Amino acid sequence: MAKITYVEFGGNEHVVDVPNGLTVMEGARDNGIPGIEADCGGACACSTCHVYVDPAWVEKLPHRDAMEEDMLDFAYEPDPVRSRLTCRLKVSDALEGLKVFMPEKQI
Amino acid sequence: MGGIVIVGAGQAGASLAAKLRTLGHDGAITMIGEEAAPPYQRPPLSKGYLLGEMELDRIYLRSSSYWQEQMVTLKLGAQVAAIDRTAKTVRVDAETIPYDQLALTTGSRPHRLPAAVGGDLRGVYTVRTLADIDAMAPEFEAGRKLLIVGGGYIGLEAAAVGAKLGLDVTLIEMAPRILHRVAAPETSDYFRKVHDDHGVKILENTGLDRLTGEARVSGAVLSDGSHIETDFVIVGVGITPATQLAEEAGLAIENGIRTDEFGRTSDPAVWAAGDCASFPHRDGRIRLESVGNAIDQAEVVAANMLGAGKAYQAKPWFWSDQFDVKLQIAGLNTGYDRIVTRPGEGDAVSFWYYRGYTLLALDAMNDARAYMIGKRLIEAGMSPDPAIIADPAADLKPLLRP
């Protein structure tokens, strides 16, 4: 279980407990947090679960694989350092306190 | 106030209900689903879920508490008997539910084999619902023989799962090639090879004469007269929109429940979205069988139910996972007259569908980059010079600049 903070583009914060084994995307989906659409349900086939991770977390997360890298490259206003697809981020105790920020929109 | 009633609790119904709340609608919402399960995703059924790699709780579209928190009344395992458009009510079992506005997100049903050719034998399955998959999952034991009827995406995905789990898989396709209806020969060739490499036996130009067996299927006679043994059968020969309820209610039907560009049916108080709905597109009318369409169309309908007056612009996209290949498709390839091949790195490749110089669609295999660029181009109505697409050294990203 990890406490994860999702910050909407407008600044609205949602702090939720996400069980280990789920993805950060699924944590948002299960709690109906707006701003993470996840149209493909986590198959890395769209790019609508894009977020910017808090700068403090960039180095602590597992690196992007080539697929994620490519999908992100065409997400809405990706940040070369902070952008991630939340469907690629598996929740474990190590993610306790993770904070992610939504882009203005998902495309 | 009768509120909003949604018939169908699949991807479209769930997206519609959730969007109504996101847009601030605070009236009553009732969602009625035939299946006992709360709204869930279908794509993993023929992939991760069937493989046993994705658990049930990850299939659900929302947590169990979500619908309650959002005050969406779920009536599950419930059959809608009839819609009374004059009284504006829906009859469910013994109950009559009034509505101000009604949304039909009834989805589609898989074609089944007729009983005359053995379609009612035990051990014959279709891939549509969670119950379908739960029923067939115990059959997936290494060494057993699986016959798949139909070489579309569902059949191929099931074949991939079977082969991965060590089954002896044969797939028959009546048409001259797999994916005949939905993809170019190049894409068919690609997937034929992938399946061949993994030991799936693909027989094209081969129909099913009949299934054989007493009570339970044990074999099949194929169109060439040969007989093969099988332990179970999966039928993936297409789906048909679930329009019966709409038809009985007297709504206009045209390859699905007919809607205008806003998602409204021939009755202004009734809307439709998802697999079951046919809507205007370019010069004609289409129906799309995809998650992307179910979500986007349902969300537009939700907005329009609240008065947005927004026309639905379909941006078709699909994907399929087979073995270690991720196929991503953007656009609709109907009417293409040439294929431009773009080699990617390693085993990646993409096939771009053109009509003349107009880019219509692309199939990208393990090439997310090509897919994302192609999708953007198609959505923007841009058609790059095929010579650039065909040149693997050409960077496509600059093409996106208007």
Set down the secondary structure blueprint.
The complex is a heterodimer of chains A (107) and B (402).
Chain A: E1 2-7, E2 13-18, H1 24-30, E3 50-53, H2 66-73, E4 83-85, E5 99-101
Parallel strand pairs in A: 1-5
Antiparallel strand pairs in A: 1-2, 3-4, 3-5
Chain B: E1 4-7, H1 11-22, E2 29-33, H2 48-51, H3 56-59, H4 64-69, E3 72-76, E4 80-84, E5 89-92, E6 95-98, E7 101-104, E8 108-110, E9 124-126, H5 130-136, E10 145-149, H6 153-164, E11 168-172, H7 185-197, E12 201-203, E13 208-212, E14 219-222, E15 227-229, E16 232-235, E17 239-241, H8 244-248, E18 257-258, E19 270-272, E20 277-281, E21 284-286, H9 291-305, E22 317-322, E23 325-331, E24 338-343, E25 349-355, E26 358-365, H10 368-379, H11 386-390
Helix pairs in contact in B: 1-9
How many distinct helices of chain A?
2
Task: Please report which band the strand proportion of chain B falls in: under 5%, 5-15%, 15-25%, 25-35%, 35-45% or over 45%.
Answer: 25-35%
- Work out the number of β strands of chain B: 26
Largest sheet of chain B: 5 strands, parallel
State mean pLDDT of chain B (0 to 100 scale).
Answer: 96
Would you identify the regions of chain B where 5 or more consecutive residues have pLDDT less than 50?
Answer: none
